[in-house]
Design a protein that fits this description.
Helix content: 55-70%
Number of domains: 3
Number of strands: 3
CATH superfamily of the largest domain: Tetratricopeptide repeat domain
Distance between the termini: 57 Å
Order of helices and strands: HHHHHHHHEEHEH
CATH class of the largest domain: Mainly Alpha
Mean pLDDT: 81
CATH topology of the largest domain: Serine Threonine Protein Phosphatase 5, Tetratricopeptide repeat
Low-confidence stretches: 277-282
Strand content: under 5%
Length: 282
């Protein structure tokens, strides 16, 4: 081993010591000291993405979102498949009210978290943040559409009033007879705009799209041999801590018998796409 390689190996070892120190400081909520430790580690080995994501997490705890974004972007440059980096970048963009960019990054983090090497402890947290972001995105676009619909409705009503006035001038003496179709036109117009606004109205999620245990909308549905669908994490927790049986049918159930329910998953996605995630997320 040459002197350069020896120096590199020594720097890597020292950087790992600093990372451990940083983790210890973080655990004690000493975020400034943790940042200093991770910064020193980065100076020694700038191409290790975890040093950047660890520092970004410290900045997040201090609400320094500009630095969260900077460190997250650097981590993504080094490792495009970093769940934490995409997740924290998404949160940072949401803080800047860049909803589309934030949703895109959170969706990427969720997809990676559910990938070949699932990061189970983060998936639920990412999902919740993504749901909130989607709801904010829906609210923003819904407000804009509602204003546009109202303006269009007023324009149509004014046009009808003008037409009714002109018609009444040409057919003087028949106003009573003309009021009936005139009012019917206004009623029909109101119904048209009411239907147009329906997709912007928050709705209750249908029962069949919700887990029988949590009563919350499915994220990762699986189906049992008896035909009952559950949220994967919830039914696995039940099988591990309560017993190996179906909680609804009480029939014996082993984790190996659970099968992804792609039909329900697609139905959930179709519902969310149509309603813009227009339901309240606690």
């Amino acid at each position: 081993m040459g002197p350069g390689a020896a120096f590199t190996a020594a720097a890597a070892r020292q950087a790992e010591v600093l990372r451990t120190d940083g983790n210890t400081f973080f655990g004690k909520h000493r975020y400034g000291a943790a940042i200093d430790a991770y910064t020193e580690a980065i100076a020694l080995c700038p191409n290790v993405p975890v040093y950047w994501t660890n520092r970004a997490l410290c900045h997040r705890r201090r609400n320094d979102w500009t630095k969260v974004e900077e460190d997250s972007r650097k981590a993504i440059e080094l490792d495009y498949n970093s769940v934490k980096a995409h997740y924290m970048l998404g949160l940072a963009l949401l803080q800047k009210n860049e909803l589309a960019g934030g949703v895109k990054e959170l969706q990427r983090a969720l997809d990676l978290g559910r990938g070949a090497n699932p990061v189970g402890y983060m998936v639920e947290e990412i999902w919740q943040e993504l749901a909130k972001a989607k709801y904010m995105q829906w609210e923003q676009s819904s407000t804009k559409r509602s204003w546009e619909l109202q303006s269009l409705k007023e324009a149509c009503e004014n046009a009808l009033e003008e037409k009714h006035f002109l018609d009444s001038c040409q057919t003087e003496g028949f106003l009573d007879e003309m009021n009936v179709p005139h009012l019917k036109q206004f009623e029909d117009l109101g119904q048209v705009f009411k239907r147009a606004a329906e997709d912007d109205t928050p709705t209750e999620v249908p029962d069949y799209l919700c887990c029988r245990i949590t009563l919350d909308i499915f994220r990762d549905p699986v189906i049992t041999p008896s035909g009952v669908s559950y949220e994967r994490a919830v039914i696995l927790n039940h099988l591990q801590k309560v017993g190996k049986f179906d909680p609804v049918t009480r029939e014996p159930l082993d984790p190996s018998q659970l099968i992804p329910n792609f039909a329900i998953k697609e139905a959930v996605q179709a519902y969310l796409n149509k309603h813009g995630w227009a339901y309240k997320i606690e």
